[in-house]
Amino acid sequence: MALVQERGDQTHVGGGCASSAEGLLNDRAVSVTYWVNPDTAEQPYTASVSFRGHLIGGKGASLRGQRFQRVEAFRAVPGSGPVAVTAKVNGLDDGVWEVQAQLLGKRSRSPTHATAEQPPRGSGLWRLPWSRTNTIDQTPIRVHTRLAARSSAPGIVLGAWPVFVGAGWLLALLSMALLLTRAGVGVAIPVGVGVLASVVGAVGARVWYLVLQRGDVNGLPTRGLCIQGFLTGFAVVFVLGLLVARVPVGVVLDALSPGLFLAMALGRQGCLLTGCCEGPITGSRWGVWSSDGRIGARRIPTQLLEALLCLLIAALALLSLLLWMPATGVVFIAAVAVYTVGRQGLLTLRAVPRKTSWGRQATVAVAVAALVGLVVSALVG
Questions:
Q1: How far apart are the C-alpha atoms of 256 and 18, rounded to whole Å?
Q2: Which of 63, 68, 69 is nearest to 49 (CA)?
Q3: Which residues of the chain have a pLDDT value below 70?
Q4: Which of 51, 106, 115, 119 could be cross-linked to 123 through a Cys-Cys bond (beta carbons 3.0 to 4.6 Å apart)?
Q5: Alpha carbon separation from 190 to 71, 243, 334 (Å, rounded)
Q6: Which of 59, 35, 63 is nearest to 49 (CA)?
């Protein structure tokens, strides 16, 4: 008889964008969700749910009796509404598992207790044909081992991230091509260089994440991607490629700006639906119910806030190009600088803080210096 014991925690290391892609290539899993209704305590507290399961049917009789146990701790915030606690246990044998869940005591001075809760209305929105959520209450349920890619959680839409990012990428190239045509510049070379730069940018996104985590990461190479790394790698290769091809760099960069930030706004919708880049749980009425793949609750919508920032930058960049078609890359530099400053502020709202103590200040300083330089140049000119 094998015993699998794991313990969840209310804090975890963020997987970065596309972290859920690991589940698409993982092995077999059992996934169950237990809904909890936090009490009305004045202060946040920590509670936990214990999940126990044992194999009652499989391909071989010798497999019967295999068991697992997982305790998922979570931070309950009064006023946050129903909380979905999901345990996903990987590496299990095929078969039928009988799983039971129990809400454990919390660590708090308040005498009240969290209670079990039925899924709220509308929770079935996330139950798509290729991603199933097994809901459990006080009564044990029987769950079949499934591909980990098909074991989901409330609020998670598997595959949303690559769909949104891919659509945004195509939209960015199309937008750039239209604006270049309007400016009388050929589009074949810029689009080709843009495709190559995107590949290098994807590598840069992974490298940036590794630097932020100081090499302390596990899982597949797709587990962590950072947008800063993508932008850096993309910009370097894109500019060099345009210079080699003798294409007007300033015109192309400015034409890329609206589509680039529109693509980033779309990409953040994928982050929201796949549980990455999430904000902390909140009791505020401005919170949005979403999940990090383990705990679904009302959270500060950091993904949506960043998407709004990107949409604003895209609109201003497009307006600038329609009213004034510069050929120096001023619109691109200004857009990236404004985004950098705004993003550094939004990072403070993330559930998982950055590990660097000086990186945010240095990044903001460089971006502000770039903006000041543009303003001074415009005034002098």
A1: 24
A2: 69
A3: 1-27, 40-42, 59-65, 105-133, 148-151, 206, 208-225, 227-228, 325-327, 353-381
A4: 119
A5: 52, 11, 21
A6: 35
Cβ count within 10 A of residue 289: 19
> In this structure, are strands 28-37 and 135-136 parallel, antiparallel, or unpaired?
parallel
How many CB atoms neighbour CB 33 within 10 A?
24
Helix H segments across 294-347?
302-323, 330-347
Q: What does the block give as tokens for 137?
A: 């209450």
Instruction: Give the span between the Cα atoms of 144 and 134, in whole angstroms.
Output: 10
Residue 17: what pLDDT? Answer: 60
DSSP letter, residue 289: E
The whole-number pLDDT of residue 369 equals 66
- Quick one: CA torsion of 128, 129, 133, 138, rounded to 10 degrees? 110
Token pair, residue 31, equals 């996934």
Alpha-carbon span 301 to 306, nearest angstrom = 9
Cα Rg of the chain (Å, integer) = 24
- Give the pLDDT score at 220: 46
| CA pair distance 279, 44, nearest whole angstrom | 16
- Cα gap 334→313, rounded to integer Å: 9
Can you tell me the distance from the alpha carbon of 357 to that of 342, in angstroms, rounded to the nearest whole number? 18
CA dist 331 and 310 (Å) reads 14
Using an 8 Å Cβ cutoff, are 306 and 279 in contact?
A: no
Name the helix (H) or strand (E) containing 104: strand 96-107
Nearest to 12 by CA among 206, 216, 156, 297: 216
